[in-house]
Amino acid sequence: MESQPHLTTIDGESFKYTKPALIHKSIRRKHRRLANIWLHKPAVVRYTSILDHEATVMVQSLHHYGQGGALPINPQPHAFRCTLNDMLRVTFGIRTDTINDPLVARALWLSREFM
Asked: I need a surface site. Which of 3, 11, 50, 68 has the fewest CB within 10 A?
């Protein structure tokens, strides 16, 4: 059963919207509020060192697995691990140790599944 559209007027223009649109609006508001908690300057300053460390580890890992540029390698799993570690450390205080960690493989598979 579909919601009946409601009519509203803003600046002399009429718009139709349904209740799901109102629900979507409240979800966006909640997401903005959560993003503001994590993305305002004092919060970002707290975890900048984590981002720097993971970026350094990624470059070292690329250098190691590529044997100093002697072998071609796919950088996608390394970049994904860097991003995953950023999220894990900021959120849970843990990180993966290697590119071969089962958590990296599972998360990479999930990300590709939904792309």
From this structure: 11
Distance CA 44, CA 52 (A): 12
* 17 and 57 in a common domain: no
Q: CA 67, CA 75: separation in Å to the nearest integer?
A: 13
Looking at the structure of the chain, the number of domains it has is 2
Q: How far is CA 71 from CA 18, 57, 106, in A?
A: 56, 19, 25
Whether 67 and 109 share a structural domain: yes
Phi, psi of 36 (to 5 degrees): -65, -35
pLDDT tens profile 6-56: 556 556 666 555 566 566 677 788 888 887 877 778 878 888 888 999 999
**Do residues 16 and 7 touch, judged by C-beta distance below 8 A?**
yes
Range of the domain at 51: 46-115
pTM (2 decimals)? 0.64
Do residue 103 and residue 58 come from a single domain?
yes
